[in-house]
Structures are given as C-alpha cells and as structure tokens.
Design goal:
By secondary structure, the protein is of the alpha/beta class. The chain is 58% helix and 6% strand. The chain has 20 helices and 8 strands. The strands form 2 sheets. A 6-stranded mixed sheet has the order 4-3-2-6-8-7. The protein has a two-stranded antiparallel sheet with strand order 1-5. A hairpin with a 4-residue loop joins strand 3 and strand 4. It starts with a helix and ends in a 17-residue tail after the last strand.
Length: 564
C-alpha cells in the first residue's frame, strides 16, 4: 500500500513538472514570436525626441551618472520602470534610434505574457489555458498606425503596468497560511510599489489605491463574519494579513517620496511640474466623448480615428476585445460589491484589477485635460490590466458554458460551444497581428537632418525640442544638440528644461555654433536677434540651418527651470 502511494505521488510530481516544462516552453517560444512581431509594429512608428531622450539618459547612466545629475526631466522620470530596460538595450546596441523600438517591443511582449499569467491565476488544466489565451487575445494585435502608437511608441505610462502585474502574480502565488508570507509579502509589496512610484507616480493610482481599498474591504468582511460567528476576539487577528497589505501599499507612498527627495539632495535629476489638477465640471462634460474614443483607440478599436478600409476593418474587429473587457469589468465590479457564497472574500487579484481600471479611467476624466485621443497614453496600463481581468473573470465561464445546462437537444449538448468562438477570435487576431507586422517600417523623424549635419561637419548646435535629442540619437551621438525654446515675457531663447541634459547648455564646458530652425515659435529672425548675423546660411528640406563663428551658448538666457 505504501509503495503504491509513493508511486502515485511520484507520478503526480512528474506530471506537475511536465506541465511546468510545457508552460515554460510555450512561454519562451510564444514570447520570441511576439517580440519579433511587436518589433516590426514598433518600427512602423517614428522615433522622436521623447524616446530619444530616454536613450540619452540610459547612455549617461551607463557612463556612471546613475542619478542623472544635471538632467531636466519631464513630470515622470521612468528611472525605475523604463530606464533599466533602456540601459540594457543601449549597452548592447549603442546610442541609436532602434533602441526605442526594441524597448517598446520588449515592454509590450512582457505585458502580454504577464497579463496571460495573471489571468490564469491558480487555475490549472483547460481552464488555465483558456484564461491565459483570452487575456492574450485581447492584447495580441495592436493597431500599427493611428493613435494606438501610444502602446508601441515612446514610453509613457504603458510600461508601468509591468511591475503591477508582477505584484499581482506575487499576491496570487504566495498566500497564507504560510507563516513567512505574512511578513515577507507585505514587505515586498512596499518595496515593489515604492520602486514603481519613484519611476512613475501613476503607480499610486494604479497600485496603491486599488490594493489598499481591496484589502480593507476584505478585512472588513473578515471582521464582520468573525463577529457574527461569535469569534469577535480573533476577528482582528484573522484580518491581520489583509490589513498589513493595505498598510504596506500606503507606506510605499512616503517611502517613494523620501527616495525622490534623496535623489534631489544628491544632485540628481529634477522633475518638471505636474500639469494635472481637478477639472471644472464643464470641462469634464466636454471631455466625456473623448474619454470613450480614447478607450477605443487604446484597444485598437477607434474606427473613426483611422482612414482606409483595411484600417477601419482592423478597428471594427477589435471592438470584440473592448466588449469582452467591459463585460469583465461589470462582472468583477458586481462580485466586488456582492461576493458569491462560495467565495465570500472574493478574488483579491480581480478586485485590484477592476479597481485599478476604474480609478485610472476616473482620474483620466476628472484630472487630465483630454486635448485629443492621443492623450490615451495616460490610461495606457488599462490595456494590460483589462485584458488580465477579462481572462480571469470570463475564461472559466467561457469553458464551462455548455448547452446541456440549457437542456438543448442533440448529441453534443455537453460540448463547450464558446471555445470555437474563442479559437476563431484568436485566429482572427493572429491574422491581424501578421498584417500589422508586415507594415512598412518608418525612418526616424530627423535621420536625414542628422546625416546632413554630419556631412557638413556640424557637430554641436541648438534646435527646438522635437529636433534636439532626436538628431543626437539619429546621429549615434556624433551630433550634440541642445533643446531651446522661446520663454518669458521678453520672448528670449532659453535652454528648454524638459527631458534634456542641462549640462550641455553650460558655455564653460560646451560649445554650440549652429542652430536648426523649423516652422514654429523659434524663428530665424529671433535667432539673428539673439546671436547676431550668421556666417553661413543653409536650407535643407524644411530646415533652415544658421552657422556662426562663436559659441552661441554664452548668449542664451539662463533657463528659469520650473523643475521640482
């Protein structure tokens, strides 16, 4: 009897290991195929100064400037979210525009895989596979053009979902009653959330608020149930783990702020001012239609924002993904409010996901001025979080729905009839992914200008923001550009304190002898007024290049940086 039991346990262990091996192999092969496709889709977008600035920051960090001393950053630093990835790719590839495409493709591949694993949860067998496939299908084929370049263009909040999905995997995999989990998991929650907030404060909206609310709600239910059962003395002890998770999430905020304060004191980067604030009600009502269009754009379903029959058909096919995510949000919200008797505490990961989606969209509507649907990058993480929620909420019911429960006639009444629907949708999205991956690749935004400047031996100059960092990266660092802008009441040229290296504007250590002019506020007339008559003037395509025989940096007005 003992021998039989031992053989059965060994067989079960071998089966588990075999299943793990198959999942690992499928993940690696699927990830490699997705990475190739997403690299092609990312290549259909133009690299501009937003992405190029991160390449230059990563290069500077690789050369020892880990805190980015002298840098004027945007209102988001990405120093703990996107920049580590950029450092790795830049170390391998060097300073070149393709780094932006590679990092965008890596980030999106990670999001698809992590969303699939979070959707799978602790489910095994067929249900685990269906859950994972449903989540992956929703995200599988991003639109290669139009406003959805926020997913595979320059980094802007989309990658913030990566550590948050890792956090949900941690909460899913490591649970009490393991004694060490009761103290180690809350510590990991604080560290991971604080790390993410340092790079992107949006993690407070996506991680801190949803996790704290979900855990407090669970703790309240535990305490109420214990007191109803007459065990009031042990109610708080039973809820201790969930309360500790809520406290860990809240503690992450001051920890992150302390780290950012320390970075400033040590002379690190300076953040630009936050531009978001509570909006008046009339602006909220005005932005409401754009909110819906932004959601459609994010999921590749904005059929009104693209042109051409193929692109419109692509968008219409993605309406199915939007419908699935909306259904999952509705189901998860209902279960959050009214949990089932079989699971009175609900599903923590699902609760956090639905709260994150709702809170992010609410903040987008009430705090962010929505100028156009390209503002959808502010809700970029909703794509991955919504897909993970869809797989987690609807994968099991999709598998279990069988006509026999509806007493339908026929020999196949026990067949899960919705599985062919999922298979057809997956096949359709795979086809769309192939179409998107076949899109023509686009040159970086200013690569021709960078080539022209190198050919004319112009290596250090000034330009507006959208040409400055872009030209530097397009030239492989051979041409160094300082971003300038018209600022102040006197309309003087100043270094532009936005994702740029302020040290390059110091005339004591750097020089600049030419300026690139494009249609816009920075005009040739203003350049002549500031620096005097140029020695040479060139025209190349839409660019005007003015060259002097002196260091222009000495004549620039000092930047009145609003950095914080």
């Amino acid at each position: 009897m003992g021998e039989t039991t031992r053989r059965q346990s060994l067989g079960a262990a071998a089966q588990r290991h075999l299943g793990l091996a198959w999942w690992s192999l499928a993940t690696v092969l699927g990830g490699a195929a997705l990475l190739f496709c997403y690299l092609r889709i990312a290549g259909a977008t133009q690299v501009n100064s937003d992405g190029a600035g991160l390449v230059l920051q990563a290069s500077d960090m690789l050369h020892g400037n880990l805190l980015l001393h002298g840098w004027w950053d945007t209102d988001v630093s990405f120093i703990t979210t996107e920049l580590p990835e950029y450092m790795g790719v830049t170390a391998a590839a060097g300073v070149r525009p393709e780094v932006v495409h590679v990092c965008s493709a890596l980030t999106y591949t990670l999001l698809v895989l992590l969303a699939a694993f979070v959707a799978r949860g602790r489910a095994r067998g067929a249900e685990g596979i269906v859950r994972a496939l449903l989540a992956a299908t929703v995200m599988l084929a991003p639109q290669p053009n139009g406003p959805t370049v926020v997913l595979l263009g320059s980094p802007d909040h989309v990658g913030t979902a990566v550590p948050l999905l890792v956090l949900l995997l941690l909460l899913d995999r490591v649970q009490p009653p393991r004694s060490w989990a009761r103290w180690l998991v809350p510590v990991c929650v604080t560290v991971l959330l604080a790390w993410t907030i340092v790079g992107d404060a949006l993690a407070e909206v996506l991680g801190v608020v949803p996790l704290a609310l979900a855990c407090l709600l669970r703790a309240g239910r535990i305490i109420i149930a214990a007191r109803r059962g007459g065990a009031s003395t042990g109610a708080w002890r039973a809820a201790a783990y969930d309360l500790s998770l809520a406290a860990a999430a809240v503690i992450a905020v001051p920890v992150a702020y302390a780290v950012n304060s320390l970075i400033r004191r040590l002379g690190g980067y300076r953040l630009g001012p936050a531009t978001y604030h509570p909006l008046p009600w009339h602006r909220v009502a005005q932005d409401a239609p754009l909110l819906w269009q932004s959601v459609l754009a994010l999921f590749g379903a904005d059929y009104a924002g693209v042109t051409g029959a193929g692109n419109v058909a692509f968008a219409l096919a993605h309406l199915a993904g939007v419908a699935v995510v909306l259904a999952a949000v509705a189901v998860a919200a209902w279960r959050l409010i009214r949990p089932s008797r079989s699971a009175p505490l609900g599903d923590l990961a699902a609760d956090v996901l639905v709260l994150a989606v709702v809170v992010n969209i609410a903040a987008y509507l009430f705090v962010v001025p929505i100028d156009n649907i390209y503002s959808a990058h502010e809700i970029g993480p909703v794509m991955a979080l919504g897909a993970a929620l869809a797989g987690r909420m609807l994968g099991g019911p999709l598998l279990r729905f069988r006509p026999s429960r509806l007493r339908l006639p026929g020999p196949r009444r026990g067949f899960p009839v919705l599985l062919p629907v999922l298979a057809a949708a997956l096949a359709c999205y795979v086809l769309l992914l192939g179409v998107a991956a076949a899109s023509p690749q686009r040159m970086p935004q200013n690569v021709h200008l960078a080539t022209w400047l190198r050919q004319h031996h112009l290596s250090s100059g000034l330009a507006p923001y959208w040409q400055a960092s872009s030209v530097t990266v397009d030239s492989g660092g051979a041409v160094t550009m300082v971003a300038v802008a018209v600022r102040g009441r006197n309309h003087r040229l100043e270094p532009y304190p936005w994702e740029s290296d302020g040290r390059l504007a110091d005339p004591a250590t750097h020089t600049a002898n030419f300026m690139v002019i494009v249609p816009g506020p920075v005009t040739g007339k203003l350049a002549v007024k500031t620096f005097g008559k140029p020695a040479r003037t060139y025209r190349y395509q839409s660019y005007l290049i003015l060259v002097w025989r002196k260091n222009l940096l000495a004549a620039l007005a000092p930047s009145r940086t609003p950095a914080r």
